[in-house]
Amino acid sequence: MADGAKGFPLPSSLKVVPGTEAAQAAYPYYTQFTPEDDERFWFYNSMHFPEPMHHFDMITAEAAYVALGAFNTRVHVLPTAKGIDHRVINGRVYIGGVAVTDPAEIEERVGEFQQRAFYYYEHWETLYDQWKEKMKALIADAQALPKPSLPDYEPLETTHTGKGVAANHALLDIYQKQIEGYHRMWHHHFEFLLLGYGAYMTFFDFCKKAFPEISDQTISRMVAGMEAEIFRPDEEVKRLARRAVELGVDDKFHDGMHIDDVLEALDQLGESGKAWLDELEASRNPWFNVSSGDGFYHYHRSWNDDLSLPFAALPGYIEKVRAGVNLERPTAQLISEREQLVADYRELLDTDEDKATYDQLIHLAHRVFPYVEGHKFYCEHWYTNLFFNKIREFGALLRDHGFFEKEEDVFHLTQYELESAIIDLMLSWGIGSEPRGPKYWPAIVKLRAAAIAEWAKHPTPPALGNVPDSIDDPAIVMLWGITRENLDTWLNADAEADSKELKGFAACHGVVEGPARVVKSVEEIGRLQQGDILVCQVTNPTWAPIFQKISAAVSDIGGSMSHMAIVAREYGLPAVVGTGTATQKIKDGQRIRVDGGRGTVTILDEEPVLEDA
Amino acid sequence: MSSEVKSVAWFSEVGIHDRPTVGGKGGSLGELTGAGIAVPPGFVVTTHAFELFLKALEARDSVRDKVERLEPANLDAVTALSQELRRRVVEEPLPAEVEQAILAAHSELCGGGSVPVAVRSSATTEDAEDASFAGLQDTFLWVLTAEETVQRVRECWGSLYSVESMTYRLKHKLPEEGVAMAVVVQQMVDARTAGVMFTRSPTSGDKSVITIEGAWGLGSAVVSGEVTPDRWVMGKITGEISVRDISHKHAKQVPAPEGGIMEVELDKLDAETPCLSDEELQALREVGRRIERHYGRPQDIEWAVDKQGNILLLQSRPETVWSAKEVAPVAEKKDNPLNHVMNIFGGRR
Lengths: 613, 349
Description:
The complex is a heterodimer.
Chain A: H1 21-25, E1 42-44, H2 58-75, E2 81-89, E3 92-99, H3 103-122, H4 124-144, H5 156-160, H6 167-210, H7 216-223, H8 232-246, H9 259-268, H10 271-287, H11 308-322, H12 331-348, H13 352-400, H14 415-431, H15 437-457, E4 463-464, H16 474-480, H17 484-491, E5 501-503, E6 505-508, E7 511-519, E8 533-538, E9 552-557, H18 563-571, E10 575-577, H19 582-585, E11 591-595, E12 600-603
Parallel strand pairs in A: 7-8, 8-9, 9-10
Antiparallel strand pairs in A: 1-3, 1-4, 2-3, 5-12, 6-10, 7-11, 11-12
Helix pairs in contact in A: 2-6, 4-6, 4-13, 6-7, 6-13, 6-14, 6-16, 8-10, 8-11, 9-10
Chain B: E1 8-10, H1 19-34, E2 42-45, H2 47-60, H3 64-68, H4 75-91, H5 96-109, E3 117-123, H6 131-134, E4 139-143, H7 146-158, H8 163-171, E5 181-187, E6 191-198, E7 209-216, H9 220-223, E8 230-235, E9 241-245, E10 251-255, E11 261-265, H10 268-272, H11 278-295, E12 299-306, E13 311-318, H12 342-345
Antiparallel strand pairs in B: 1-2, 2-5, 3-4, 3-5, 6-7, 6-12, 7-8, 8-9, 10-11, 12-13
Helix pairs in contact in B: 4-7, 5-7
C-alpha cells in the first residue's frame, strides 16, 4: 500500500470497490473526495469508525464534525486549528484538520481563545453541573417523543379538541426533533471536550518533560477520577449479584443460562424473585443505558436492549459474593493511592518552582477530568442509544408498510433518504393510496447491504496524501493520538506484516500467557472461559463486568487514555490496546503472551488449538 | 566516633560522616548497615591502622618525604619509587597492634571458621573515588584465609603509591600529610545473580525510573563489562517494568576453588534465561528507593542475590553524572496556571 517512506496513496488513487458505485454515490456530495483533496493529508478514523459505515450511521460522523468544528473554530476559537473535515469512501471515514498558519490570525485567535476558554476553566464546576442538567433535559425530551404510528382514522379526540394537526404530521415532527436532538447532543459533547483534554494534556506534557520515561498509564492513573459514571454500570451488576445472594435467589444464575428463562423463573418465584426483578429495574434505569460498543454504530446495542453482558457477569460475581469477597470498589483506598502517587512523583521534582507548577496543573487536570470521563455515559451511551432506538421504531413502521423486509434495514438509508421515505408514507397515508417506497427501497437496501459486506473485505490505507512535517492540530493529537512519529510507524507497518509480535499501547502492566478468545461482538461474550485472554476490536468500559473472568485483554482500537485502559488498570488486568490488527492476526484458541507493560502481544502457537468448550 | 583511634571498625559502628577514617566505601556500608539494609557483614581497617603502619615504615626509611620530592614529569623516578614503596608496604612487618586487630576481626567475622571475604580499598576523599586519582581501586574477591586477607590489605594500601596515584597528587600539589587509605573486609556472597542499579535513568536522567542490570554469578562480571547484562527499566514509584532486555550472557564469574574468581561458560538456555524474577526486581526496587530516600539523592548501587534468593547490598554511592548538571525548570513559571494550557493549544510556542 504505502511504498517506502514517501507518503501514503493520494485520495484520487483510491478506487471505489467495483459494484459498489451506487452505494458510494449515496453518501452526501460534500463527503465525496474531489481532485483538490489530493493536496491535503487525510487519515482513516479507525478509532471511531473501524467498520464500513451504514448509510444512516454516517450521521454520527456528520453531526459530530458539525459540532466539533463549530466549537474549535468559532466558539472556543482554538488559535492554531479549525475544525475537522471528513470524506467517505468505501464506507470508510477519512478526516483531515484545517490548520491556521497566518501568524496574525493566530495572534487574534489567541486573544479570543483566552477570553473564552479561560472562562470555562475558571467556571468549570458550575458550567459542568449546568451541562449535566442540559443533558438530562435533552434525554428527557428524547424519551418523551412518542412512538411513531399511523392509525386508520384519526382519534376522535383530534377533532373534539380542535387539534388541527393529523397523525402523519407527527412522524415528521418526531423524526426532525430526534435529528435535532442528536445534533444538539453533539454540540453539548464538544462544549467541554477539547478544553478538558487540553488541560489534561498540559499536565501530561509537564510530566513527560519532568520524567522523560514515565508511562502514559502512570500519568492517567494520577488523574483518573474515582466516581465517574462510567464505572457505575459494573457497580450495578455487582450490586445485583449481592442482592441475589441476600434474597436467596442466587441459585437461578449460572453460566450459559437463558436470560428469558431466568427472568421467568424469578417472576414465578414469588416475593424474593420479584424483589430482585425490582432491583434489576432500578439498575436498568439509567445505568444499563450503556452501549456494548462505543455507541457510534446502530448495532452497538445497550445492556437494556440486550442483557447478555451483565448476565454473563452475574454468575462470577455471585460466586465471589458467596465466597465472602467484598465487591465494592474501595473508593477511599483508590483515592488515597492516587494521592500517594501524585505526592511521590512531586517529591522527585528538583525545584520548588516546578513543584508549584505541578500542583497547579494536577489541580486543573483533576477539575476537568470528571467531564472527560463522565460525558460518554450521557452522550455516546445514553443519548445515542435512545436515538438509534427511535430510528428503529421508524424502521418497524416502514417495515410494516412494506418499505423493506426488516426493521434494521432502515439503517441502509441516509438520514435524508429516511426523511423522504417518511414523507412518502405521510403522503400515501393522507392520500389513501399505496406508498412508492415498497417498490423503491428493497432493491437499494439489498445493494447497500452487499456493499457494506464487500467493503469490509477490503482493507483501507491508514492515511492518504503526503505526510505533513508536523502535526500541530491539538484536536488531532488529543482525540486521535496522531503524531508525526506514529505516521512513520504506519508507513513502515508493511515491513512488519509477518511478525509474530503485535505492538499497541501499554494500557495496564503485567505479563500473561493464555488462550486467545477472539470476540467479534457482544453476542459472543458467553464463549469466554475463566482465564481466557480477550481479543476484541473495540474495547469498551461496559465490558468491565467480564474482566473478572479473563486474564488479559487485547484490542485493535484505543489509546492508553481510552476508557478501556482506565478500567483495565482499575482491575489490574494486563491489557494492550490499539494493536490495529489483533482480531485479524490472532486466531481463536491460539496461545498468546500479553505484556501490558511493554504494550506487546506475542503469538506463541503456529496453529490454533481446539476449543475445549 | 571511636574509629579515629581504633585500627578496625565494624560496619555497625560507622557511618558516612566517618569517611576521613573509614573511607567512602566503608562509611557507606556502615551507613546502609545502620539504616537496616541487608549488607554482608564486615569491618574496615581504618586510616588509623594505616597511619600506625606508615609511622613504622617512616621509622626505617622515609616515605612521604620521598614522594613530595618527586618531579612528576620524571616518569622513571616516579616508577622506581612506586616499585620501592609498594614493595615496602607489602613486605615490611606490620605493627603487632595492627596485625592482631585485623586477624582478630577476621576471626570474629568468620565465626572462627573459614568464610571467604572481599577486600577493597576505601578512599577517604570524594575525588579519590575517581579512578584517575587512585589508579584502579583495588578489589580482591574470594579471599580465603586470614593471612591472605592481611596480605590483600597491604596491597590496597600499596595502591596509594601506584604511579598514577602519586602523579595525580603531585600534579595537584596535594600534601602527602593526610594521604591515607582505609580498607574494607567484607563477607563475600556466592551470588546466584549480581549487578548494578541506578536510581535514575542513565540515558535521560529521569528520576522516576530505576535501571537494573544483572548477570549470573558474581557482580564483577557486570562491573568489569565482561558479560552483557540483562537490563530492566522500571518505574521507581509504580514498579511498572517498561524495558526488559534479556541478553545472551555467555559466561558467569564464580569463586575459584583455590580462591579468587574464575569464568564459567554458560549453555544457551542459562545464557538466555532472565537472571532475576519479577519479584526480585520489585524487591530490588524497594531497596533502591530506601537507600535513595536515606541519602536524599539518586544512587549508583551494587547488589547481589545469594543462592537462597536473599538480596544483599554491596555498595552504594551517589550518582554523579546527571546530578552535576544544571537543573532547568520543567516549565516556565506562570502566575495564571491557565497560561500553561497555551502550550497545548498553540500560538505561544
